[in-house]
Every structure is written in structure tokens, then in C-alpha cells.
């Protein structure tokens, strides 16, 4: 006979059809495992003995819940999904993950976990139900505290916006009316080669030289006109364009074009790679300096609110440096009056006077500017 998995005991009663016979074995039996075997002995009046064997089977559990898992000495706290955590003091560097199943579930990856680092320590455990029908993976996150007072601290952090906004900043800072202008250090391809006419032999030689010197490049071998290829290369922003023309090669020279200045430079074929290396360094430096000079030329200083008003209403873009008392009310006034927000504290400059907004004592210097 089969009983539900939550049944822990059964009562067995033998019913006699012959009132002259006797039955032994009746009673209440505890099911300690998943199966119970009970023998009922029936003795007839003439002494004949018959043994009736009763097999009691308890159905297997389908439970694969987190309650089958325990971190010794700590209570699991739900985080999200299948993640549960415990928090331990800094002086503790090991815990024991245990199987505490009362239903026969199997839990893997249990035992003592030592050498815990400060912060999150994630351990994946798999709980398999007794009947094998449910298999669930859990993450046990052991958080070892870092501070001496054994409390969680919120770290100081910031986002540098290394995403699409940085791509936008590159385009806005360096781009021109022809298209992208990519700094050599971040350009995936430093050089675009545009062959003009049948120059396959010299093209292969140039490609091998660039590869040997770890200079990334692309070759435009489409059937478009040279002029179209030049314009397309400028749109895409390759730092250097190499115009590999048959007529120029007959005179043993080629033309290099800087994307940042569109300057054309004629060099002997054998000097292409050294010149490209030199130009990549120069272009990177020149682009940085031009961008820095433009930025610095658009940083203004307002000593009082009248100067701030003039700068905020007449200058197109840029940053304004002010003295600030640290009060949110002054920030809000600037935002309400001019649509300008605080951008960054200037920690390496000393306060030069009272707060530009309210006139009270200033505590720091501050960059303000329009957010785009």
C-alpha cells in the first residue's frame, strides 16, 4: 500500500473472518524511512499459521525548496530570484553550508567554505527533490563585512558615463563638417588604404609591413571612384589615409593624408611605416591639445551674481567657476534663473571670495554649466 509523503505512521488492524482464529501484529507503526514492512500472523483453531506481509510505501517528496539548505549559525535572507544571503562579521572568514532536509532532498556543494574575501562570496548549490522531479539552483551569498564596527557601509561612487554619451562626446569634441575625427589611440583602424589602379604587388607589400608593425588598417577595394572613397574615409574618421596610386608608385612615392587637418604628405614608399608611426603620435597629441585649448577658452569666472548673469545669458556653452557656500538653495536659484546646474567641485582651487550667489562665506569652488 502507498501513503502520502507527509504520513509518518499507520495503524494496521487485521480483521478475522473466522472468529476462532487469532491475529498478532496489529498496532500503530512509525514510518521512519520511505518504506515499512509489517508481518501479521494469523493462527487458525487447528494450529495452522499464515503470515501476511504488508508493505507500506511512503511516496517520495517533491520538495526542492531553500528550506533544505542552511548556513550554520546564520539565517538566510531572500535577495532576489534564487539568491539568498547571510552577513558575517569581518573576523569570520569561513562558514559551513549544510543539508538540513527532512524530506530526503539532495543538496550539492555543501561543506565548509573558507578564505572568504571582504564583500560578496557567491556559492551555487543545487537542491534535488527526493523523487528527482524538481531540481533548483540557488545562490548562497555570504557577505563578509569590511568595517571594524561590522556594519554595511555605502561606498562613495560615481558614473563616468562610459557608454553612448562618451561616443557623443568624441563626435562633438573632435568631429568636423566632413565627419568623424577619431583619436588614434581609440581608433579601431589607424589607417585606411585606398588603392588607385592596379597596385596589387605594392599593396601586398604595404599590408605585410603594417601587420609586422602592429598597425591596424583597412583596404577599400570597392569599385567606387577614388573621390568617393576619400570622402567616405573622412566620414568614418580613419586617422590616416594612404593613397596608393599607380602613377605615384612609378615615382616611388605615396600620399598620406591626416584626418585631423586634411594635410597631405608625400613620402617615399619605403618610408610609409616610419612616417605613419610618427604621425599617429603627432595626431594624438595635436587633437588633445586642440580640445584642451578649446575647453579652457570656454571656462569663465564669476565673482558675483551680476557677472554670473552676464556669462550665463551671453556665452554659448562652456563652464562657469563660482565660489559656493554649499547650500542647496543657491544651487536651486542658479538652476531656476538660468537653467544651469552644478557640474563638479573644484577641490584643487582655494576659495577666492564670498559665495557668488548669496554673498555669505564660501566653502568651495564649483563648476556650473548647462546639461545637454
Q: How much beta, percentage-wise?
A: 25-35%
Q: Largest beta sheet, briefly?
A: 5 strands, mixed
Rg (C-alpha, Å): 40 Å
User: Number of helical segments?
Assistant: 7
Low-confidence runs (pLDDT<50, min 5 residues)? none
Per DSSP E runs of 2 or more residues, the count of β-strands stands at 23
The sequence of SSEs as H and E is EEEEEEEEEEEEEEHEHEHEHEEHEHEHEE
Head-to-tail CA distance between termini: 76 Å
Indicate the overall shape.
elongated
Please provide a written account of the structure.
The protein has helices at 164-174, 200-212, 226-236, 246-250, 272-297, 305-314, 328-338, and strands at 2-3, 9-12, 22-24, 27-30, 35-43, 49-58, 69-71, 77-80, 83-88, 94-99, 106-107, 111-114, 119-128, 135-144, 191-196, 217-219, 240-245, 253-258, 264-268, 299-301, 319-324, 341-346, 364-369. The model has no long low-confidence stretch (mean pLDDT 90). The protein contains seven helices and 23 strands. With 372 residues, the chain is of the alpha+beta class. The radius of gyration is 40 Å and the shape is elongated. The strands form six sheets. The chain has a five-stranded mixed sheet, with no helix packed on it. Strands 16-15-17-18-19 form a five-stranded mixed sheet, sandwiched between helices. It has a four-stranded mixed sheet with strand order 1-6-5-3, with no helix packed on it. The longest helix has 26 residues, at 272-297. Helix 6 links the parallel strand 20 and strand 21 (319-324).
Amino acid at each position: 500500500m502507498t501513503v502520502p509523503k507527509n504520513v509518518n505512521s499507520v495503524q494496521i488492524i487485521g480483521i478475522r473472518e473466522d472468529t476462532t482464529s487469532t491475529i498478532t501484529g496489529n498496532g500503530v507503526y512509525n514510518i521512519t524511512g520511505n518504506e515499512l514492512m509489517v508481518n501479521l500472523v494469523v493462527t487458525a483453531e487447528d494450529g495452522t499459521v499464515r503470515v501476511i506481509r504488508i508493505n507500506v510505501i511512503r511516496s517520495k517528496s517533491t520538495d526542492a525548496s531553500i528550506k533544505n539548505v542552511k548556513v550554520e549559525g546564520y539565517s538566510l535572507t531572500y535577495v532576489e530570484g534564487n539568491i539568498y544571503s547571510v552577513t558575517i562579521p569581518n573576523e569570520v572568514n569561513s562558514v559551513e553550508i549544510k543539508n538540513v532536509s527532512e524530506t530526503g532532498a539532495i543538496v550539492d556543494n555543501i561543506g565548509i567554505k573558507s578564505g572568504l574575501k571582504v564583500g560578496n562570496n557567491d556559492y551555487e548549490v543545487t537542491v534535488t527533490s527526493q523523487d528527482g522531479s524538481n531540481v533548483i539552483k540557488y545562490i548562497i551569498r555570504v557577505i563578509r563585512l569590511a568595517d571594524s564596527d561590522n556594519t554595511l557601509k555605502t561606498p562613495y561612487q560615481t558614473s563616468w558615463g562610459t557608454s553612448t554619451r562618451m561616443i557623443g562626446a568624441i563626435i562633438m569634441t573632435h568631429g568636423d563638417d566632413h565627419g568623424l575625427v577619431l583619436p588614434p589611440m581609440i581608433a579601431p583602424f589607424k589607417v585606411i588604404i585606398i588603392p588607385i589602379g592596379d597596385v596589387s604587388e605594392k599593396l601586398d607589400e604595404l599590408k605585410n609591413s603594417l601587420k609586422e608593425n602592429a598597425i591596424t588598417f583597412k583596404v577599400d577595394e570597392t569599385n567606387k571612384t577614388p573621390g568617393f572613397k576619400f570622402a567616405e574615409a573622412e566620414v568614418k574618421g580613419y586617422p590616416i589615409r594612404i593613397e596608393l596610386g599607380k602613377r605615384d608608385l612609378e615615382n616611388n612615392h605615396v600620399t598620406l593624408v591626416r584626418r585631423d587637418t586634411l594635410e597631405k604628405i608625400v613620402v617615399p614608399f619605403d618610408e610609409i611605416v616610419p612616417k605613419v608611426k610618427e604621425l599617429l603620435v603627432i595626431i594624438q597629441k595635436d587633437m588633445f591639445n586642440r580640445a584642451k585649448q578649446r575647453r579652457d577658452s570656454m571656462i569663465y569666472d564669476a565673482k558675483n551674481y551680476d557677472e554670473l548673469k552676464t556669462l550665463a545669458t551671453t556665452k554659448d556653452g562652456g563652464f562657469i567657476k563660482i565660489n559656493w557656500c554649499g547650500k542647496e538653495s543657491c544651487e536651486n536659484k542658479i538652476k531656476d534663473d538660468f537653467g544651469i546646474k552644478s557640474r563638479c567641485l573644484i577641490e584643487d582651487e582655494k576659495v577666492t571670495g564670498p559665495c557668488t550667489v548669496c554673498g555669505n562665506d564660501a566653502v568651495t569652488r564649483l563648476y556650473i554649466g548647462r546639461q545637454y
